[in-house]
Amino acid sequence: MNTQTLTSLKALPVMLTLLLLAFTSVSMAGEKARSKLPTITDITETTDGFGILYAALEAAGLDSKFDGKRDFTVFAPTDEAFEQLLKDTGLTAGALLADTDLLVAVLSYHVTRGDRNAASVLGAGALKMLDGNITSIKVTSEGAMIEDAVITTPDIRAGNGVIHIINKVIIPPGLL
After folding, report:
1. Is there a smaller number of Cβ atoms within 10 Å at the N or the C end of the chain?
2. Distance CA 106, CA 130 (A)
3. Coil/strand/helix, residue 75
4. 82: number of CA atoms within 13 Å, CB side?
């Protein structure tokens, strides 16, 4: 081996260490910036169009689940989506919010573990939701869909995950 090759080999561990430190710093900076974002619960509480979703999370006792301790991906139905569900099922808002078993079942079908951006969701083709059921993900002429709901607004970043707004409440198989 010549001297230049030996010098390069000796410098390799130092270069790798510097590269690792640079990546770690970037990752830590990204996590620090992300930790300053509001949580999923905070976003549903303070964003227009999520009043019924937030009330449902509270009524089901799930609001604290999305408080920032774990990462989740939430497919968040709008108030209009909930209003359509009430119309289609004949339920009242009061009856829906009083039925905690139904709320937990429906809401758990809108959440998957981990932080999944739109590309990750679409690439998956199917997702295992918190309730254990598998949802289908597809792209149609209407756009990206989870089950029969259109993902109208993807990738709303939260301190503990991501929210994708959907235009319909999706119902677990066999529930209603």
Report:
1. N
2. 10
3. strand
4. 25
- Tallying the residues shown for the chain, one arrives at 176
**Could you tell me if residue 128 is left (phi over 0), alpha (psi between -120 and 50 degrees) or otherwise beta?**
beta
Would you give the DSSP letter of residue 66? G
pLDDT band at 4 (very low <50, low <70, confident <90, very high): low
Q: What residues contact 146, with CB distance under 8 A and at least 6 apart?
A: 75, 121, 127, 135, 136, 137, 164, 166, 170
Token digits of residue 42 = 């905070």
Local structure of 77: helix, strand or coil: strand
> What is the dotted CATH code of the domain comprising 38-166?
2.30.180.10
Q: Where do the domains of the chain lie?
A: 1-36, 38-166
Cα radius of gyration (the chain): 21
pTM of the full predicted structure? 0.80
